[in-house]
Amino acid sequence: MSRLISWSLLLSLAAPCLADDKKLDAEPRAKAVAPFLDEQLIAVGHVDLTRVDVNAIAEKLSEYAKLKDEEIAGPKKGVGDWLSAWTKAGVREFYVVVSLADVPGLPPFVVVPLEGDADAKNLSDALGRAKPFQAYQFEKIGSAMVGGAEKTLTRLKGLKPEDRPELAKAFAAAGDTAIQALLIPSKENRKVIEEIMPKLPQELGGGPITIVTRGALWAAVGADLPPKLSLRGTIQSSDTEAAKKLCDLIARFYQGVGEEGSPNQKARDLFPGWDKLVEQLTPKVEGDRLVVALEEKDVAATLKPIVARVRDTAEHKLSVNNLKQIALAVHNYHAT
Question: 25 in the Ramachandran plot: left (φ > 0), alpha (ψ -120 to 50) or beta?
């Protein structure tokens, strides 16, 4: 359970939730990772550590999952210690970059912009103490500390950057939030998908795959964390008509995976309040974009039953494992 809580806290820092559409100069964020982008880039994540309140996150997680103080105390201290070490070493923000040049064989790499006279060695040591990055190697490349596999670092040092102008637009759509997660497929990525799978599955209507490849040029999710939790997601389409077709496809997908009595009813069984969840997560067409926006009360209503179900599942698995161990011990005793 302690490990589950730790990862829940970390995911709160690195996984996407969404926020108010505030004015933001997105160019500095795009420029921070621009030297490390190639034509195989597919996703970028960004976390502003100055806007992360571990105590508030732990309080919300405890409320949603109905955790006791002793259950949350250890993971909260562990994550808090990592963040404290990072900020003392000069880490104010970091980016996670996913490129098909690395994954799935190698992990995504991390970019930490260096500010002023930041000590690169202390910063590297601080980052390496966090469990998610303990297997990473860190090296100063240009004006940033970059962490990843040795092969990835070698590739990045000789990289000729690829211009990805849509990155700044996606950061702007995510807004002035604590966390952003961007999906940025290239034209080549979309072309390959169209060649491999020209038609959608019959369950989704069997139309041309271009409903997806042209209907979702890029996607951006922005999140603000507790104490004020909110969520906003945007999908950029090629035009208004493409946006409407993609919206209809998403609605059909939700209907298919949650239809009562169907082989795909697992989604309805897994997520309590499925119909309400679908209503909240179905995007609205705004010009050539699809937009989903959730305020704190909406996020709470969505997450509370899901987090509670995850906790119940974890406790059930733990109980089953304990029973197995007891049965094995009885068997071994009897055999002896």
Answer: beta
Q: Which two tokens stand for residue 132?
A: 């998610």
Respond yes or no on whether the N-terminal peptide bond of residue 132 is cis (omega within 30° of 0).
no
Which candidate, 213, 161, 162, 165, places its Cα nearest to that of 189? 213
Nearest residue to 186 via CA among 172, 211, 200, 166: 166
Q: In this predicted model, what pLDDT tens digit does every residue of 130-151 receive, in sequence order?
A: 777 888 999 999 889 999 999 9
Residue 107 is given by DSSP the state P
Backbone angles phi, psi at 91, to 5 degrees: -85, 115
Report the chain's mean pLDDT, rounded to a whole number.
81
- Kindly give, in sequence order, each residue whose CB lies less than 8 Å from that of residue 329, ignoring residues fewer than 6 positions away: none
- Closest C-alpha among 225, 221, 219, 230 to residue 178: 225
CA dihedral for 47, 53, 59, 62, sign (positive or negative): positive
The 10 Å Cβ neighbour count of residue 298 is 18
- In the structure, what pLDDT confidence band is assigned to residue 308 with cuts at 50, 70 and 90? low
Distance CA 261, CA 150 (A): 50
Cα 127 from Cα 114, distance rounded (Å): 13
Residue 110 CB neighbours (<10 A): 20
Residue 319 CB neighbour total at 10 angstroms: 10
Q: Rounded to whole angstroms, what are the CA distances from 45 to 35, 135, 144, 269, 286?
A: 16, 19, 16, 31, 24
Residue 193, token pair as written in the block = 């998908």
The answer to whether 234 and 290 are in contact (CB under 8 A) is yes
Q: Which two tokens stand for residue 152?
A: 């990835």
Cα Rg, the chain, nearest whole Å: 22
